[in-house]
Amino acid sequence: MSRLDPAFNDLKQQYLLPPPGRDANLGILASDPICRDSQQMAGQSNAIFPPLQASPGDFIALQYQENGHVTLPENTPHKPRNSTIFIYGTSSPSKDDRLLSIHRVWNACGTGGDQRGVLLATRSFDDGQCYQINNGSISLARQKIYSKVPTDPQGADLWCQNDLRLPTNIHDNYTLYWVWEWPTIPTGMVPQGRMEVYTTCIDIQIQPGIQNGMVLFENGQDLNFAGIQEQMLANKMP
């Protein structure tokens, strides 16, 4: 569903673990799927939003709103100032994939867990330049440094993004698992802290050809469409 759709709301897309209503002492269970129910079957198609198409070795950008977690940290004092996103990839997804069988189990070498997938990248939730329009000091500073012309679907905001390069040895279809850890830090009310995880899952249709050239970053691009230089150059070669 597009963010421009009048019926859009975050809860239609959001997947939180532990789920709302579960006893906090239980935490995340071994039986918890890594994808929400609407994303568990690979190869789903939507006429309005067809699957992403990319070639092996291509760069892709995963974008999201910061929702004040970056620019208004005072709203969530019990949360860390930054947090980490883990991006996993597999050519053999299963509707039965579980978070705890993959997250912090699959590794970059492909030798973790059942070895069906790899850890493609870890990224900071705050990419260093994203913001939503508000009067907070972080947003105001970034609006000046990273100014841009409002463009749909971002509007005046500058969305956060995770840039990564796809492996060169993939074909047909490839699935990504995006996992954001946003824990509650230990406090008097929650002395052990509490894990809070959000995930989303995406299928990519892999096209012929391999993109294995070197990468040079071009400055001065329209920020509505530009990648993050640090992230792009961290993956110069497949």
From TrEMBL:
Highest taxon of the lineage: Eukaryota
Residue ranges of domain DUF7492 in the record: 2-211
The protein, known as: DUF7492 domain-containing protein
